[in-house]
Design a protein that fits this description.
Strand order of the largest sheet: 2-5-7-8
Number of strands: 8
Order of helices and strands: HEHHEEEEHHEHHEEHH
Number of helices: 9
Radius of gyration: 41 Å
Structural class: alpha+beta
Shape: elongated
C-alpha cells in the first residue's frame, strides 16, 4: 500500500513537471539574436538566398554539356504494305505485287550530347543570375534590419506595459489609503462628502486604466513572441530594464554618423533594380546576334520479327552523328527593335528612380536624426516634469490632510502626476525606438 502511494505521487509529480512549459528568458540583445535566427520572415529570406544560389547554378549549367538518352520501341500490329511492279518478278506489265519491308519489331536507342558554342542570351543570363543572388542577399539584410527594429519595439512595449502596471498599482494603493482615511474623517464630520467623491472619481479612473494595461500587457507579450518566431502563448521573461535601456541609447555620437547613402540597404536594392534593367536591355540586344550549337549522338538499332531484344544473339547496328546548328536572325518586322527600345526606356526609368531614392534617403536620415534628438530632449524634459509633479502631489496631499487644501486641488495634482508618469514612460520608449529607426536608416548595426 505504501509502495503504491509513493509510485502514484511520483507519477503525478512527473506529469506536472512535463506539463509545465519552459520559460524563455531574454535580454534585448539575446532577443535580437534569437529573432534573426527564428523569425519567420528572416527564415524565408535565408531560403530566398538558397533558391538564388540554385538559380545561379541552374543558369550556369544550361550552357554546359547536356546529355539526353531516348529509347524507342516499335511494334507493327499490322505492317505497312508497299506495291512493286509485277514485271520485277516475271509477272505481267501493269500488275503489282504487295510486299512488306522491315521487321515487325524494332528498337532504336540513342544518346545525344548538346553544347552551346555561342549564345548572347546565355552570357547575359550568367550576369543576371549573379545579380539575382545579390538582390536576395540585400533583401535578407533589409529583412534582418526590419526584424531587429521590430524586436526592439516589441521588447520596449513589454517593458512599458510592465512599468505602467507597476506605477498604476502603486498609485492605486495610495489612492485606496487616501480614500479610506478621508472616509473616516468624513464619517467623523470633519470633512465634506465632496472630498470622498473626488477621490472615488480618481480611484475609478485608475482602476479602469489598470484593467486596460493588464490586457495590453498580454497583447504586448504575444506580439513579442510572434516577432521572435515563438509560439503566441510562450512564457517569456525579459531581463533588461526600461530606464537602463534608455540611458544606454542616449548617444549623441550617432548624430554625427557618416551619411554615405551608398552604404544604405535601400540604395543598394535600388541599384540592384537599375542593374537588372540594364541586363534586360543587354538581353534584348543579344537577340540580334546569331546562335551556334553543336551536337553529337550515337545509338544502336535492333530489328526482329519477334520480341527477342533481350537475348544474347540479338544483332545490333550502331549509328553516330555530329552536327552544327547556326541560327541567324534576319527580319522580325521591327519586333526586336521595339523590345530593345522598351528595355532602354525601363533602364532610363530605373536610373531616374535611383536618383530619386538617393534624395529621399538623405531626407529620411535627416528626419530620423531630428526625431532622435527630439526624443532625447523630451526625455530630459519629462524626467524633470515628473520630479516636479511628484513634489506638487506630495505637497497637496499633505495640505489636504492638514485641512488647508481642497480635494479638488489634490485631484488636480494627482491627475497631473499620472499624466507626467505616462509621458515619462513614453519618452523613454521613444528614445529607444527612434534610435533603432535611425540605426536602420543608416544601416550601421551589425547583422549576424
Amino acid at each position: 500500500m505504501k509502495h503504491n502511494l509513493i509510485l502514484t505521487l511520483s507519477l503525478l509529480c512527473s506529469l506536472t513537471f512535463f506539463g509545465q512549459e519552459e520559460t524563455q528568458v531574454f535580454s534585448l540583445q539575446e532577443a535580437i539574436d534569437y529573432a534573426l535566427e527564428h523569425n519567420r520572415a528572416s527564415i524565408n529570406a535565408s531560403r530566398d538566398i538558397e533558391a538564388a544560389e540554385k538559380q545561379k547554378w541552374e543558369t550556369t549549367a544550361s550552357g554546359l554539356p547536356q546529355i539526353d538518352a531516348t529509347v524507342d520501341y516499335q511494334n507493327w500490329i499490322k505492317q505497312q504494305v508497299s506495291l512493286l511492279p509485277g514485271e520485277l518478278a516475271g509477272g505481267e506489265p501493269g500488275t503489282f505485287i504487295p510486299v512488306t519491308f522491315g521487321t515487325k519489331h524494332s528498337v532504336n536507342a540513342t544518346a545525344t550530347l548538346n553544347q552551346k558554342i555561342f549564345d548572347g542570351s546565355y552570357l547575359v543570363g550568367l550576369q543576371s543570375a549573379k545579380v539575382y543572388l545579390e538582390i536576395s542577399q540585400n533583401a535578407k539584410v533589409k529583412t534582418d534590419l526590419e526584424v531587429r527594429q521590430a524586436v526592439i519595439n516589441a521588447y520596449v512595449n513589454v517593458l512599458f506595459s510592465e512599468e505602467a502596471l507597476d506605477i498604476l498599482n502603486k498609485n492605486l494603493a495610495v489612492l485606496q489609503k487616501n480614500l479610506e482615511e478621508t472616509t473616516k474623517i468624513f464619517e467623523n464630520g470633519l470633512e465634506e462628502e465632496e472630498s470622498v467623491e473626488q477621490l472615488q472619481i480618481t480611484l475609478s479612473g485608475i482602476e479602469s486604466q489598470l484593467n486596460n494595461t493588464r490586457r495590453l500587457k498580454v497583447l504586448a507579450y504575444q506580439m513579442f513572441n510572434i516577432t521572435l518566431g515563438l509560439d503566441l502563448n510562450t512564457d517569456t521573461t525579459l531581463t533588461d530594464d526600461l530606464a537602463m535601456l534608455t540611458e544606454e541609447n542616449m548617444d549623441l555620437g550617432i548624430l554625427q554618423a557618416d551619411e554615405n547613402i551608398e552604404n544604405t540597404i535601400d540604395y543598394k536594392i535600388a541599384k540592384n533594380d537599375m542593374v537588372s534593367k540594364e541586363l534586360l536591355l543587354k538581353l534584348e540586344k543579344s537577340k540580334f546576334l546569331p546562335t551556334l550549337n553543336a551536337f553529337v549522338n550515337g545509338g544502336y538499332l535492333g530489328f526482329n520479327d519477334e520480341f527477342g531484344f533481350l537475348r544474347g544473339d540479338q544483332q545490333w547496328f550502331g549509328t553516330s552523328l555530329f552536327g552544327l546548328s547556326l541560327r541567324v536572325p534576319i527580319f522580325s518586322s521591327g519586333m526586336r527593335s521595339a523590345s530593345t527600345q522598351r528595355a532602354r526606356i525601363n533602364y532610363e526609368k530605373a536610373q531616374t528612380d535611383l536618383t530619386e531614392i538617393e534624395q529621399q534617403l538623405k531626407l529620411q536620415i535627416a528626419s530620423a536624426k531630428s526625431d532622435y534628438q527630439l526624443a532625447m530632449e523630451e526625455y530630459e524634459n519629462k524626467k524633470k516634469n515628473l520630479n516636479l509633479a511628484e513634489r506638487i502631489e506630495t505637497k497637496n496631499e499633505t495640505k489636504f490632510f492638514e485641512g488647508v487644501g481642497s480635494s479638488f486641488e489634490l485631484r488636480q495634482a494627482q491627475t497631473q502626476l499620472y499624466t507626467a508618469q505616462e509621458e515619462y514612460l513614453q519618452a523613454m520608449m521613444q528614445v529607444i525606438n527612434t534610435k533603432a529607426e535611425l540605426e536602420t536608416s543608416l544601416n550601421t548595426v551589425l547583422i549576424n
